[in-house]
Amino acid sequence: MNLKGKKDFSAFLRKKLAEEPVLSSRVNAKGTAANMQVFMSNIGYFHTTAQGDTIHQGYFSKAIYTIQVQPRYTLNKIEWRGDTIPVMKLLSRNAQRRGLLKPGNPYQLSDITAERDRLDLFP
């Protein structure tokens, strides 16, 4: 391989595969920690706390996150409440048989949202 071929290959790596450096002024460790805390709540880890901070060492910076994770909540009992009208009774039986929510499953907001959407589309 000649010198020109080697130069072209390194230029290819640098231009196509490399990413621009992240400036430490653009890192928002506290905001990211808040997002982590919301995400943990959405998947059932309630009362979890997250803190973020940055440490600067010369030209380099590190983001340090401290998370205190609490036990994950699970669904204990699924109870459908509603009127005594026949449609609600039918909906309740259908949801119990083919529903996404089952006792013993971990709490997940996405499952609850999907179940609500599924029931909205019920004919």
Topology:
Blueprint: H1 3-17, H2 29-42, E1 49-57, E2 60-68, H3 86-98, H4 109-120
Antiparallel strand pairs: 1-2
Uncertain segments: none
- Which structural class do you get from the secondary structure elements? alpha+beta
Principal-axes geometry comes out as elongated
- Overall pLDDT metric: 82
State the end-to-end CA separation: 68 Å
Describe what you observe in this structure.
This protein is of the alpha+beta class. The protein is 44% helix and 15% strand. It has helices at 3-17, 29-42, 86-98, 109-120, and strands spanning 49-57, 60-68. β1 (49-57) and β2 form a beta hairpin. The radius of gyration is 25 Å and the shape is elongated.
Task: Tell me briefly what this model is.
Helix content is 44%, strand content 15%. By secondary structure, it is an alpha+beta fold. A two-stranded antiparallel ribbon has the order 1-2.
